[in-house]
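Tutorial handout. Part one gives the primary structure; part two gives the three-dimensional structure as tokens.
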Amino acid sequence: MNLSHLQSIGRTFAGGAFLLGFWIILFGNFKLLTILSGVVSSALVISLAKRLGFTVTVPAEAPFKFWLWIPYLGRLFRNIIRSTFRTLYLILTDKIEPKIVALHCEVDSDLGELFLLNSITITPTTIAILQEKGLVYIHHLDLRDREEYEELNEAIEGEYGEPLRKLLEE
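Part two.
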């Protein structure tokens, strides 16, 4: 075996360990069934990703930039809570005005795109549909006019795009 093959195996196991750790955190316990189902799920995800040719390159220092992750995750959780109440209000008052809009936001890596699209999607009232050539297409439940569109564009770029570029820069 050559060095690049060993590195690939190491990255695969590191990715599996990350997925398994995330699985255990989500389930919140260390029961045997949780661990076994996490191992099986992680193995399935990794084998499917390899079969489809999906790769994610993580800069080596990115996981250790706590001073950048903490504010990013704080803003993300704040936005999830705020928009959850906004979504509840829209549903209860029947004031939903859905639109699909294209927003300008560029990130420099596949991992950055993944984080950006997931950050947008897990925030209620928005679902990221597609990202291509610096545009993110979003389904939004409550955009009434051009001014709100501009505010959304600035918020996504400022709260997700710019921090992700700093986090994931090489």
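Part three, for discussion. The chain has two domains: 3-52, 62-168. Helices lie at 3-27, 32-52, 66-93, 110-121, 146-168.
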